[in-house]
Design goal:
Blueprint lengths: L14 H23 L3 E12 L13 E7 L5 E2 L2 E2 L4 E6 L2 E12 L5 E7 L10 H14 L4 E6 L16 E6 L8 E5 L7 E4 L8 E4 H11 L2 H4 L13 H22 L2
Parallel strand pairs: 7-8
Antiparallel strand pairs: 1-6, 2-5, 3-4, 6-7, 8-9, 9-10, 11-12
């Protein structure tokens, strides 16, 4: 079953579940583009890893990664088979490991990176975090090069660059490599269908279209979000505008009624 919404589903913006949504979007976009650019270009999925600490302003899934050694525990039990050698006990230092995936389009002839495509996550939109700082450094470096830069923001919460801040609920931005501008931006709101954006390559190849709605719908279906998403409450923060909140309530009510008719549940 498809999402209740014509475009982005605001219920999927919850940071707790965004990792899965993000991964499926990255996979869906890479598969979509690979069919369009092959065999002259290759679409790769790359990954960067952040290590942060519990003191950071945002809460993230915790992965025990580094340990502190303590003294062996005295008085270990003795079994019929003999004494068990006393182990060294260690306490985990719970650092947080964040993995962010992004897409690169690579020239099949010389392996040069032609375009970098980022689907933004809560972590690289959270002010003051290592992820945000690393993202901004990469953004600046790529935009100063001949590599095309594309960022897609499907999260209403978090920091945005000044060029696009406050303009819409969601956006996609393209900065063509080797130029100083202007940027090409596609603005869209909660009630809008997602646009089809341009993904530039290298001459003599023309831009290829990336249908954001199609890749989102594919990711939504593959993730079975119609069954796993709790539509009974309100979408995650930030709060919707009052008119949008009423619209969401009506859309969800109609969708749930249609689902009951179709599935009986």
């Amino acid at each position: 079953m498809s999402s209740p919404f014509p475009g982005m589903d605001p219920f999927l913006e919850n940071p707790v579940g965004w990792g899965g949504v993000h991964s499926r979007l990255i996979n869906s976009i890479s598969d979509y583009l690979a069919d369009l650019v092959s065999p002259n270009f290759i679409v790769d999925i790359e990954e960067r890893v952040y290590i942060t600490t519990l003191g950071d302003p945002e809460k993230w899934p915790i992965v025990p990664d580094v340990y502190v050694v303590s003294r062996p525990l005295a008085g270990q039990p003795v079994t019929a088979a003999g004494s068990i050698t006393a182990p060294t006990l260690i306490e985990p230092l719970y650092d947080v490991e964040i993995r962010d995936r992004f897409i690169e389009i690579v020239d099949a002839r010389n392996r040069e990176v032609v375009a970098t495509l980022e689907v933004l996550s809560p972590y690289n939109k959270a002010s003051g975090t290592p992820g945000r700082e690393a993202f901004l450094r990469k953004r600046e470096k790529v935009r100063a090069s001949k590599t095309h830069w594309i960022e897609i923001d499907l999260l209403r919460a978090g920091e945005r660059p000044p060029e696009v801040a406050g303009k819409s609920d969601y956006y996609a931005l393209l900065k063509r490599g080797g130029t100083s501008g202007p940027y090409e931006v596609w603005y869209f709101d909660l009630r809008d269908k997602m646009p089809t954006i341009a993904v530039p390559l290298r001459p003599p190849f023309e831009d290829v279209p990336l249908n954001l709605q199609a890749v989102f719908d594919h990711a939504y279906t593959r993730g079975h979000y119609a069954e796993s998403t709790d539509y009974a409450g309100s979408p995650p923060l930030p709060r919707l505008r009052p008119a949008d909140a009423r619209w969401v309530e009506e859309i969800v009510r109609e969708w749930l009624a249609a689902r009951v008719k179709t599935t009986g549940s």
